[in-house]
Amino acid sequence: MRELFQAAERELLTLRTAAALQLRVHLRTGVHRLRPSPHRTLRPLPSRAAPSAHWPEGPVCVGCYDAALSRRGVCDDCHTVRRLVDPPGPTATRCTDCAGVTPIGHVCADCGIEDKLYADGRCDRCTLTRRVTALLADDTGTIPDALFGLAAALAAAPNPRSALNWLRTGTATAILADIVGGRLTLSHDTLDHHPHPRAADYLRRMLVAHGVLPDRNEHVDRIRRFIDDTLEGIDRPADRRTIQAYARWRVLRRLRRRAETHPGPRTATAHARTNLKTAVRLLDWLHERGTVLADAAQSDIDAWLATGPGAYYARDFTLWAAQTGRCRPVKIPATTASPGTTTDPDTRWSIVSRLLHDDTLELTDRVAGCLVLLYAQPLSRITLITRDRIDRHDNGSLTLRLGTDPATIPEPLAGLIRDLLDTGRPYTGVGSPTDTPWLFPGLNPGQPLSAARLGVRLAKLGIDGRASRRTALIQLAAEVPAAVLSELLGFSNSAAVTWTRDAGGSWSRYAADLAQQRAHPPAE
Predict the structure, then answer these.
(1) Is 481:496 a contact under the CB 8 Å cutoff?
(2) Which of 11, 60, 182, 421 is the most buried (most CB within 10 A)?
(3) Concatenated DSSP letters for 354-402?
(4) Which pLDDT belongs to residue 230?
(5) How far apart are CA 150 and CA 145, in angstroms?
(6) Per-residue pLDDT at 259
(7) How far, in Å, CA of 461 to CA of 79, rounded?
């Protein structure tokens, strides 16, 4: 095998399109065959892989064939972006016209680019543009003004072949075709009742992002549908009326007020769902004991609390029921959050060092991980950072507004944030707007990355979002006064004071630090 590799190296310079060699084991004879490819390493090909083309140097696999056809650069002679073929090999600097060699072909009929053609003699980008036009255009072949932004976003997808696959096989594409063809009404209600809810929801995000559909709070609307499904599962009319009143006048009213006072892409609804489920469970439990809510005494509630820790979430329901005269005043203790675990400080700084200096990690994970480990930001707040909260200054510095006052970001983290601003995330959903306000855009068009998804990504790097944030908060609270912590990191005054007290500091220390920093005139 060593002699075979040495022979391959001697033949490397004679291969027209090769940058390295691959080996393939013949299925019948077991003999290795050399195959040219632009790969940088020697590795075995799939045993049953059929060659995509036969060049003078031998058969070429699909990946190497695509790489060779898509390899373009600026020609040294004509200074145009062309496929470079001369001199043979990866160091080519001239196109076929300037080199006087026979063109390889594969020229797009629409844009003239030299690339592997996708369909009908056209490259993948031009094929995508034609298929988007065929999908969204009216009978005259013109795309309506309302759909023009959507068409432009689909045609400008970062990966044209992924967008083509979505147009060919995506369920959302079929729904969009029915809407454009007039077979379905363009409305939120149509998408709400579609038999394919996930595809309909993705299409809804896309249409809302481009102004085709009016925006609405999807999380509040989903909890409304959840309430309807919950009510259908309650057989007792009296209990159904009680849950309906609780959901309408307590749960939904609170969520809508929160959505109005804190507008944003997300409204937290998990706690509301838990309260509703626990209220239904409490009524079912009382019914099994032969009693109703109006006759429930404190002894009944105490027995209910003994059924498990989740029973304490009935507190909001019983408070509302007592206030509205539906039950006697009963007491359920409020649940308190446990302090939780923390990350080992040495482990934390080791991960920070890797995030700052390991270029093999994705830029999104590097920046988000540093915001957790260094600035104690929760994942739900990191995903909602907008690009306008980052300011670049003439002196080269960069500031990020996490709270009321901007925080100056030191290098090399500032450089990573600049790169993320300039390049953006490499993966976005098909149909996403080209201009996004989010620093961390998600796969849903127009929406930021979800906190749950970011937590999964960071967990692969050994970052526990909650534990790492607690460790960072303990250190920051021990070193930074509570007032500064609140203003720079966006915490409430009470939370900042609590963490500072737990870390051994206080507001009085902040006043003492200010007094020591002031320049007093010498005493006479």
Answers:
(1) no
(2) 60
(3) HHHH-TTS-HHHHHHHHHHHHH---HHHHTT-BGGGEEE-TTS-EEE-S
(4) 92
(5) 10
(6) 80
(7) 44
- 216 exposed, middle or buried (CB, 10 Å; 0-12, 13-18, 19+)? exposed
d(CA 445, CA 433): 7
What local confidence, expressed as pLDDT, does residue 88 receive?
A: 72
- Which residues make Cβ contacts (< 8 Å) with residue 335, sequence separation at least 6? 309, 312, 313, 315
Please give the Cα distance from 422 to 4 (Å, whole number): 46
- Residue 329: Cβ within 10 Å count: 10
Q: 């002196």: which residue's tokens?
A: 395
Give the C-alpha separation, 249 to 326, whole Å.
14
Rounded Cα distance, 286 and 440, in Å: 47
**pTM for the full predicted model:** 0.71
Where does residue 308 rank: exposed (0-12), middle (13-18), buried (19+ CB within 10 A)?
Answer: exposed
Ranges under pLDDT 70 in the chain: 1-49, 52-58, 89, 102-105, 263-266, 336-340, 482, 492-524
- Helix 253-261 to helix 218-232 angle (10° resolution) is 170
Note the pLDDT of residue 33. Answer: 39
Query: Percent helix, strand, coil in the chain (nearest 5)?
Result: 50, 10, 40
Output the pLDDT for position 506: 47
Distance, first Cα to last Cα, the chain: 91
Q: Which whole-number Å values give the CA distances from 456 to 247, 353, 366, in the listed order?
A: 32, 20, 14
List b or e across 367-378, with b for residues whose CB sees 16 or more CB atoms inside 10 angstroms.
bbbbbbbbbbbe
Using the structure block, give the residue that is written with the tokens 């060092």: 353
pLDDT of residue 1: 40
Q: Is 296 in contact with 328 (CB distance < 8 Å)?
A: yes
Q: Please tell me the distance from the alpha carbon of residue 508 to that of residue 511, in angstroms, as a whole number.
A: 5
